[in-house]
Amino acid sequence: MVTSRIELVRAPNPSAMTLSGTNSYLIDCANGQAICIDPGPAIERHVQALLDRAAAMDCRIALICLTHTHPDHAPAALILAQRTGAPIAAHAETEFPHDRDLHDGDVLRMGDARIRVMESPGHTFDHLVYYEERERALFTGDVVLGEGYVVIAPPNGAMRPYQHTLQRLLDEFADAAVIYGGHGEPIHNPRAKVLEYIAHRRSRQQEILNALAGGPQTIPQLVQTIYHDTNPILWPAAARQMLAYLLALEQEGHVQSHAVDREMTPQEYAILNPEWETIVGAEHARTVEEELGAMLRLDTIREYALSP
Fold this sequence. Notes:
By secondary structure, the protein is of the alpha/beta class. Helices cover 35% and strands 21% of the residues. It has 9 helices and 14 strands.
């Protein structure tokens, strides 16, 4: 239990990307109805756990809301909708099947619950954050987590929109009392956590610029320099984050790049285009590939340098 009105039901899908599992939330609307935020992966026992928890709350699930449509957050919505008759609400531009389009500034009302919707691109471009006003609770999906930091990976993620999203959270929800992220435990000091996230992104970007001040480098070289004390199994994830920073810096004219006229070494290729199924197993490979933009193959090695 999180509060008397909000219940956390964690999916049984722990992994390196999902931490202890994906968080699904039920909000009691005080009229015998509940809203489910992020019903999670299509795991039968998790769907049943959501139904059982709603019944224990003396509620029926009447609305399903998605923060985004990665495979660890959304697929159970279709099963849950079939079981309950509840409509699915999601970003207006998502390709995931849904019944209600949501836009920035929309307000969802059910019973005594009033939930504001904020478009929150960065991790994905179809991401939404929800703010339940009575509990002063932010449901942040994969924008802010209860543990660690968020993966930002092209082509479905972008660094500058993500940083703008963090700033909006800071500016527009100063009265928030708690953050319920898509993974990890609730955060009871929202402002401090968002400031930490903002500072972390600025610090990581400065590390990249400092590294490039010493001369041109490829992404694998930057990863091994900046993440030298990180488990190498995580270097491919770091490489995709590095790409997001470099794309932004290059677009802004701070960095320039060119293709290197040689084939990648096996180590470079493994960092830039890993076979995730062999690393995390078939069960988690699709989630990791979606999170890290694996559909974007990096078949050419590029060298990055500070612009003159």
